[in-house]
Predict the structure.
Amino acid sequence: MEAGGPAGPGMGEPMSGSPGHEFLAAVHGVRKRVRIGADGEEHRIEIDGHEHRVAFIETGPGDGCLLVDGRPHCVGIQSDGKGLYKISVGGREIPVEVAHALAGRVARTAQGDNRTGPIEVRSPMPGLVVHVHVAIGDLVAAESPLVVLEAMKMQNALTAPKSCVVRKIAVEPGQTVEGDALLVVLEPTGASA
């Protein structure tokens, strides 16, 4: 789905339904700001200011149909679990890189972060906890997966910002979480217990 065309109904109005979440997506290297809000069974997706109504019908693992403004588009979705996706539409493969706006802020904050106190890993978006990769007391390296969240049929691995010890796990697989929900508490290695 590409941004463009006339804006849908309600542009300029706050999205109805559950609170939206924002992220950046790079399609063929071109960055787009995306905002998603639920509206019943549909989602209202705003891409660089252009709004679309979207529903997803899963037809199999990684396959389905997107109804975009009432027009069907059969798609295949492959994810590496780190925000890189291959979207197949009409025989074309489209590489998409997704970076949640909050995740980007967290990554920028973690770079050069010399704090020795606890680090709270929070959900960047509402979703379903699919997998918890760690246990309390585990030593994890930077970029190690901690929790996998599923939102809009896409799985996103949340990783450790730096080498840490897991001090608390606040979720379990199968649990639904809201945006900004506490998932894991980490203590940077070298910090006192």
About this structure: The radius of gyration is 18 Å. The chain has two domains: 21-100, 116-188.
